[in-house]
């Protein structure tokens, strides 16, 4: 994805105060970071806020980036992942409070996934159906534990290799593979159960 | 995951090779052993199917498009610069503006915006207050100022009126000085024999003695006598009268602003 020398030059220009170089970095990586945040957090609003936070943190810590220690994209992904984990921990208490305050009928997460899925037999348009399927998978992804979810996002949605994922998540490569396998299997079981109930 | 051996492969080893197998990087004897274990193990077989299914589901997820405002917001929050060229909105063609609107937009509105700032408004308020207090103390009535007519004819009339006043004042002052000079001449004619030194001694402007004592002496010396116009006794008003005992000789009585005892 990136030419190491080009990115290193961009980073040096950024540190020197070149606003154009920073703008190039933002243009190059905003889509990737936004997608990671969106798949992890689940909502567009949260993803926007988190993406902005990621870039603010990048801008402040850019001088600490060392090209000899790894690719820039891995460094960026590590920052993103750390912020996502922090966000998850912060909102975990809110989610627990919400689940205690709300009844099962009014809380979306309290319902089985099959009850959240609209009737799939009706839409005639294929694109609409694809969009609904994607939304279903997206919701199912949100049901996974954060460890499995982040591994799946980085591997299957961002096409990172296992070594980069291991660096970003700070776990051994074998653990990464195991999490990916378990995550895929759990997602499939969740979706199979959902569609079996719908059918 | 249970750790039992099937077809010469443990489940842990299967789990490690599962990702490689799904990625298609496993081949040869390793792939054969992997597939044999998947067929025989009741745990790992379904795991392979589910992992493959989950991978296919995730492949169906496409990238989402970030909002158009994301990049400008990021740049504004990091560098503080709102990059206008990143905004996708196309500007409408600018209508023609008159010179007055141009002046208004480029000078008046910014100036008015500056003046409206609280600190400047407070300064202007204080300045106005100081000015109004000064005018009040100086006796300037705002109604008089407002009633001034600024028509050219009115200004011309005011000019001539003021000029006439000045001319009259100068004429009056000249008449007074002429009369004063005549009286001084008359006095000099009346008392030619007075000795110089004694007269010099009684001069009011003699600073060799204390002023207060000199004034007292002068007051006591003058008494009810008439003071001639030539005497240096400060501001006075002339009042020419005729002495009944000697109608030919003019006598001048002088009234000063000081109280004579």
Keywords:
heterodimer, A: 199 residues, mainly alpha, Rna Polymerase Sigma Factor, Chain: A, Arc Repressor Mutant, subunit A, 2 domains, globular, B: 261 residues, 3 domains, two-stranded antiparallel sheet, 10 helices, 4 strands, rod-shaped
Explain this structure.
The complex is a heterodimer of chains A (199) and B (261). Chain A has nine helices and no strands. Chain A is an all-alpha fold and 199 residues long. Chain A has two domains: 1-106, Rna Polymerase Sigma Factor, Chain: A, CATH 1.10.1740.10; 111-199, Arc Repressor Mutant, subunit A (Orthogonal Bundle), CATH 1.10.10. The longest helix of chain A is centred in the middle third of the chain and has 30 residues, at 72-101. The model of chain A is unreliable at 99-116 (pLDDT under 50). Chain B folds into three domains: 1-89, no CATH class; 99-137, no CATH class; 165-256, no CATH class. Chain B contains ten helices and four strands; from the N terminus they run E-E-H-H-H-H-H-H-H-H-H-H-E-E. Chain B has helices at 11-23, 28-40, 44-59, 70-78, 99-115, 118-137, 142-147, 152-190, 196-201, 211-222; strands at 5-6, 9-10, 236-242, 250-256. In chain B, a hairpin with a 2-residue loop joins strand 1 and strand 2 (9-10). In chain B, helix 1 (11-23) crosses helix 2, helix 1 (11-23) runs parallel beside helix 3 and helix 2 (28-40) packs across helix 3 (44-59). At the A-B interface, helix 2, helix 3, helix 6, helix 7 and helix 9 of A face helix 1, helix 3 and helix 4 of B.
Concise summary:
With 199 residues, chain A is mainly alpha-helical.
């Amino acid at each position: 994805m990136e030419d190491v020398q080009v990115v290193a030059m961009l980073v040096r220009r950024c540190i020197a105060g070149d606003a154009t170089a920073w703008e190039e970095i933002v243009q190059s990586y905003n889509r990737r970071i936004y997608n990671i945040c969106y798949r992890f957090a689940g909502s567009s609003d949260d993803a926007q806020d988190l993406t902005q936070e990621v870039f603010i943190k990048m801008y402040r810590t850019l001088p600490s980036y060392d090209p000899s220690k790894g690719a820039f994209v891995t460094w960026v992904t590590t920052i993103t992942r750390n912020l996502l984990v922090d966000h998850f921990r912060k909102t975990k208490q809110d989610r627990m409070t919400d689940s205690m305050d709300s009844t099962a009928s009014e809380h979306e997460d309290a319902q089985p996934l099959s009850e959240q899925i609209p009737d799939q037999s009706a839409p005639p348009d294929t694109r609409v159906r694809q969009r609904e399927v994607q939304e279903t998978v997206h919701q199912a992804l949100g049901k996974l534990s954060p460890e499995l979810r982040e591994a799946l996002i980085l591997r299957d949605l961002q096409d990172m290799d296992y070594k980069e994922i291991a660096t970003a998540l700070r776990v051994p490569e074998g653990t990464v593979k195991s999490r990916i396998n378990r995550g895929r299997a759990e997602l499939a079981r969740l979706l199979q159960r959902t569609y079996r109930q719908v059918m | 995951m249970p750790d039992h051996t099937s077809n010469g492969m443990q489940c842990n080893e299967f789990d490690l090779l599962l990702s490689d197998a799904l990625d298609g990087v496993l081949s040869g004897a390793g792939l054969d052993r992997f597939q044999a274990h998947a067929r025989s193990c009741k745990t790992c077989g379904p795991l392979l199917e589910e992992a493959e299914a989950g991978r296919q589901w995730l492949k169906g997820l496409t990238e989402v498009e970030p909002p158009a405002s994301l990049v400008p917001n990021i740049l504004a929050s990091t560098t503080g610069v709102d990059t206008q060229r990143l905004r996708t909105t196309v500007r409408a063609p600018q209508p023609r503006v008159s010179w007055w609107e141009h002046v208004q937009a480029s000078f008046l509105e910014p100036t008015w915006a500056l003046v409206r700032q609280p600190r400047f408004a407070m300064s202007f308020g204080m300045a106005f207050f100081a000015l109004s207090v000064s005018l009040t103390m100086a006796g300037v009535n705002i109604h008089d100022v407002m009633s001034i007519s600024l028509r050219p004819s009115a200004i011309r009339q005011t000019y001539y009126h003021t000029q006439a006043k000045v001319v009259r004042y100068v004429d009056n002052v000249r008449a007074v000085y002429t009369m004063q000079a005549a009286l001084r001449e008359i006095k000099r004619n009346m008392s030619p024999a007075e000795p110089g030194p004694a007269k010099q001694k009684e001069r009011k402007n003699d600073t060799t003695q204390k002023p207060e004592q000199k004034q007292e002496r002068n007051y006591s010396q003058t008494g009810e006598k008439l003071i001639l116009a030539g005497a240096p006794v400060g501001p006075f008003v002339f009042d020419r009268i005729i002495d009944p005992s000697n109608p030919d000789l003019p006598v001048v009585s002088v009234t000063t602003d000081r109280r004579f005892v």
